[in-house]
Amino acid sequence: MTAADPLSTALAELDALRDAGLSALELASTPERVEAARVEFLGQKNGRVKSAQERIKTLDPSARKAYGQRFNAVKGDLESAFEAARLRVERKTDDRGRIDVTLPGVRPRLGHRHPLTQTAEELIDLFGRIGFEVARGPEVEDVRHNFDALNIPPSHPARDPLDNFYLAVGERTSGEGPIGGDVPMLRSQTSTVQIRVMEAQKPPVRVIAIGRVYRPDTVDATHSFMFHQVEGLMVDRGVTMADLKSVLRLFARAYLGRDVTIRFRPSFFPFTEPSVEVDMLWHGGHRWVEMGGAGMVDPNVLRAVGYDPEEVTGFAFGLGIERLCMRRHAIDDIRLLYQNDVRFLRQF
Ligand code: FA5
User: Fold this and answer.
1) The domain containing residue 167 runs over which residues?
2) Is the pLDDT at 184 greater than 70, yes or no?
3) Is 102 within the bounds of a domain?
4) Which of 163, 227, 325, 327 to mutate to test the pocket of ligand 1 (most atoms within 8 A of CB)?
């Protein structure tokens, strides 16, 4: 075994000095103890830091730069720790070490709910006022609820493995045909909950479902690979497209404000006919951003859950919760909602 070289030994001792000094200062609970720790470590005459400084002279000139740098860092750390300790004990105790209970304390900073949670709660409240109850469904779904029962044919591009998070399909061999049935997946839309609700209850139905959905989308200012949707479903005798548009306009005004403009564009979803996409005029007023999709529930979907499309009709919608929250609070990048930076979160 070779002995450690003098520089390594000296650096290790500097680190040990720092640890000893920091713990002495942290443990000191009265001004006297803080002062004693200061004299021991940072004292001008015989302080341990001073001795460590002298040691540089004993080292080979080639080692002095490294030692000097480490020494300065250790000294800086101890000086900051002393300052922190001094402030901590300052005036809080009298000369016998007793705490002065009349001094103002440190106000604890209270946490609060995340803006997305606040948005979800507000949506539940707003839709609740017009008679929508809350329904829930699992985030780990099966292909039947995510696609089959929603009238999305086996060959539909929305099922592409590159656009979905399928689970446990690693052992499939080619030639097995489209992914279907019980194959588990992270749901890509909350429309799955429409099916679960209709399978479980007879009309009339008036529900919203809020939750996370997953898609391997490329992340940018308005896209994330995990986001939240609010799904709405109303099925009853005589429900029309006019009801759908009124509910969405009412909701947009209530949540986003009277001055927010929304528009409906003809679109296509396999589970609604006719279908629309709903856009909102983004903050700044220069561009439209898609808020969600909607439409009249396709008769095939109603039939598949045992409803009679001759008797009842329905509308459904699915809106992106992040984008609603962003529009409401003029947030320009979805990623801010997921970075957990308290300076951002504190504003809501
Ligand atoms: C759907 O997901 C349909 N299930 C909506 C629907 C429900 C139509 C019921 C008809 C009836 P779409 O893929 O367009 O549609 O997504 C709906 C909304 O989710 C978008 O308008 C957008 O607001 C939001 N969204 C979609 N992808 C992302 C993403 N990667 N990041 C954040 N939000 C997203």
Assistant:
1) 115-345
2) yes
3) no
4) 227
